[in-house]
Structure formats: C-alpha cells, structure tokens
TrEMBL record:
Its EC number is 4.2.1.75. Keywords: Lyase. Pfam families: HEM4 (PF02602). This is Uroporphyrinogen-III synthase. Gene3D superfamilies: 3.40.50.10090. It comes from Haloferax chudinovii.
Length: 247
C-alpha cells in the first residue's frame, strides 16, 4: 500500500501539475502539489537557422501560440514531450536524441553542425552544456530566450512538510525546482531541516543534471529513472518509497 507515500511534486501550476496529481493518485500515493516554477513569456521568437533546437513543451506551446513555425530548418527536440507537442503544433520533428539531455543532444548533433547556424530557443535557465557543446562542434550558435522561469509567490508548503518529517517522497524535475525548493525553505527558516527531511525520504531526480544539483546542496537522490519523463520518475519513486509503508 502506497497511500501513505506523501509525494511532493513541483511542476508548473498548469495542466502539468494537474496531470502529475492524477498520476500520483493512480499510483495510490498522496500528492503534495507545490509548484516551484512559473512561466513568464518574453514574446521573442527564434531567429532563422539551419537547425532550430527546442528544449521544452512550454517553448513549443508559446511559439505555436505566436504563429511561429520552423520552416525549412531542421527541427530538433529534447525528449518525447517536447517532440509530441511540436507534432501537435503541426511541425515535422527531424531530430530527437536517444538521451534526453543537453549533453545527449550535443552528442546527437555534433557530427552534423560544423559550420551550420543553430538557433537554440528555450528558457532563461538553459544549461550552457548545450550551447557550449554545439559551439565546440563548430556550430554558429544563437540563443533566444522564450520565457523566464520564476518561483511562484507562496511556494514552499512542501519544504515545511519535509522539515517536519511529513514527506515520504519528492520529485524534482529540473535543477531549478531544487534551487527554488531550497530558496522557499530558507525563506521559512527551515532549509537545513528540510534537507534533512528529504534525506529521510525518497528523492527522485528526472535526470543526472538534476541529481547533481541536488547532491551539490547536500540532498541525497534515491531514484533517477532510465527514461527522463515525469511518469517514469513518479513510478520509480513511489515504488521505492511504498515498501517502507506496507505494514
């Protein structure tokens, strides 16, 4: 029985947090929704390039709303959620790396981008691993910030629960969710206690970069799923936490 697996989830306060709550409910866990990211669109659109790289479903949706399309560019998407959103917008997705990370996309594109213009369109918190790696591969890289990621006012009830020992699991879906969680905990004066509470729980990170960020702040990550999707993360974390509460 996993009903006692109180699981903090930090997705943006839109359909993503709603789907996350539904998924955790379906797994028999008790969702603790605490959005740690809010989207502030910039209104910018990508410049033309031989390759256009989109790194998130949010970016795709903003560009679709703006009436943008990739034209003759080779459209590259990190991960299935981004690619699916792009296809739903009516665009042809040309490249998706096997590994859904910045490093994975660099490895995937490196043989083909020497001398080519590559437009990277993403949030203001994108990893330099992507842009630096593409430049090292010989690409002429330009970056467009489509939206800013900020911490919502009032976020942090999960930090208080962690500090009180009232969380069994926490699901971090980006480095920024880790940092915003810790900022929210610090605002409440419970940062050290929240980290200690997480380290008594099952902590899931969606991929190695998120795991490394958590580790750099003293958070022990229990679970990194093989596939960098929220569903895989949630299933792995709840299954790992549930046996502890079977009595």
């Amino acid at each position: 029985m996993s009903q006692q697996v109180r699981t903090a989830v930090f997705r943006p306060d839109d359909d993503r947090i709603e789907r996350a709550v539904e998924l955790l409910d379906s797994l028999g866990a008790t969702p603790v929704p605490d959005p740690m990211l809010a989207i502030e669109p910039t209104g910018a659109t990508p410049e033309p390039g031989a390759f256009v790289v989109l790194t998130s479903k949010t970016g795709v949706e903003l560009l679709d709303e703006a009436g943008w399309n990739p034209g003759d560019s080779v459209l590259c998407c990190i991960g299935p959620a981004t690619a699916d959103a792009a296809r739903e917008a009516g665009w042809t997705v040309d490249r998706v790396p096997d590994e859904y990370t910045s490093a994975g996309l660099v490895e995937h594109l490196a043989p083909d981008v020497d001398g080519a213009t590559v437009e990277v369109a993403r949030s203001d918190h994108g990893s330099p691993v992507l842009t630096d790696g593409l430049r090292d591969a010989g690409a002429d890289v330009h970056e467009t910030v489509l939206y800013r990621l900020v911490r919502p006012e009032g976020a942090g009830k999960s930090a208080e629960m962690a500090a009180a020992g009232d969380l069994e699991a926490a699901l971090f879906t980006s480095s920024l969710t880790v940092e915003h969680f810790l900022d929210a905990a610090a605002e409440r004066g419970v940062r050290d206690e929240a980290v200690a509470g997480l380290n008594d729980a099952v902590v899931g990170a969606i991929g190695p970069p998120t795991r490394d960020t958590a580790a750099s702040h003293g958070i022990d990550v229990t679970v990194v799923p093989d596939e960098a999707t929220f569903e895989a993360l949630a299933v792995a974390a709840v299954e790992t936490a549930a046996p502890t509460y079977h009595e």
